[in-house]
Amino acid sequence: MTRPVSGFPVFFRLVAGLAGLVALAGCQSSAGMVAINPTPRTLMYSYIIANGMARGQVMSGGVPSGRLLQLVDADRAALAAILTAEQSPSGAGMQNAGRAMENFLAVIEQPDPAPPSVVRR
Fold it and tell me: Exposure pattern of 48-80 as b/e (b: 16+ CB <10 Å)?
């Protein structure tokens, strides 16, 4: 004689699955809840990386003199803004430093007006 199958394992599995879904739903956050606020150190690290990118472009020899002046001006402005924000941290100083870094990156990422010529043999 066989024993009838109890409904408890099915019920237990359903409750465990529902509890798992509730636990995972608690881990979700809306897009507006996560904010990354830059600090003077993160801006300085970003500046060092961007400065290396600019140096790489200059060392490659493909930067015209007008663009070179733009790179130098944007580099100096970004460094001065970051150092100012580090010496006296304030909301306005951090925003100014962030804008200066964005400007520096925009100057670095400008496409060259004349792409290098292709030599065919």
Answer: eebbeebeebeeeeebeeebeebbeebbebbbe
